[in-house]
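Target chain:
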Amino acid sequence: MFIPNLIASLTLAQTNQDSLPPEAYQQISSLTLFVAILGLLVIMVLSIILVLRRSHRRKQAMPKPEPTEHTDAWAESGRRFDNSIVEIDPNED
């Protein structure tokens, strides 16, 4: 990989007191980019794990809803019918 070459070029530049060669700058920038992308991936994976754990805990904490007794929609509407609602008949006057 390019990491041993980078270390060798940096130590060579330090011993000669010369400026870094252009290849070393390219390797340093690519290593920095690699570390930044790797850091972003680690942060994303950790946040996904955290969100999944929180949602799993919320699902366990919530009580399960009880099943409804009525399966027929018309029977349920008849049960909920309010007698105070009456039809207006125009001929009733």
